[in-house]
Amino acid sequence: MSSKSRPIPLALPTALLSKLDKTAALMNRTRAQLIRDTIEIGLEDLRRCGYSIAAAVVDKAHSTAPLDSLPLPKVAEDSTSEPVPDRSPADYSKKKKPGQP
To answer: CA-to-CA distance for 24 and 31, rounded, in angstroms?
Structure first.
C-alpha cells in the first residue's frame, strides 16, 4: 500500500462491524488494518475470477477443503478416554409398537 492515504466515508452494518472487531482481535490487528487487508485480498480474488462476483463465489465454493481432509485434533498419549460408541442409525423395525407386549 502506498504511504499516502485518504479517508473515505463508509457505512457498515452493525453485524459486519462486530465480525470485523472479533476477527481483528483474533488476529491482533486494528479494525482499519483488517479492512485494508480484506479489501486487498478481495480485489485480488475478483481480478483472478475475471471481475465476476458469481465466478468468485463458485471459485470459493470449489476451493473449500472437505471436512474429512481436515487434520484431527491431537490427543495426549496417556489419554484414558473410552472408545467412541458406534453411532450408526438405530434399527427401528424391531421396536415394539405402543400396546404390544
So the answer is: 6
pLDDT in tens, 10-19: 999 999 999 9
Task: Give the chain's largest Cα–Cα span.
Answer: 83
Q: Which 8-state DSSP code applies to residue 78?
A: T
Angle between the N-to-C axes of helices 14-27 and 31-48, in degrees from 0 to 180, rounded to the nearest 10:
100
Cell output for 65: 477443503
Q: With 0.90 as the threshold, say if the pTM is over it.
A: no
The grid cell for 25 is 482481535
Total count of residues recorded for the chain: 101
**Residues 6+ away with beta carbon under 8 Å from 29:** 37
Residue type, 52: S
CB 31 within 8 A of CB 20: yes
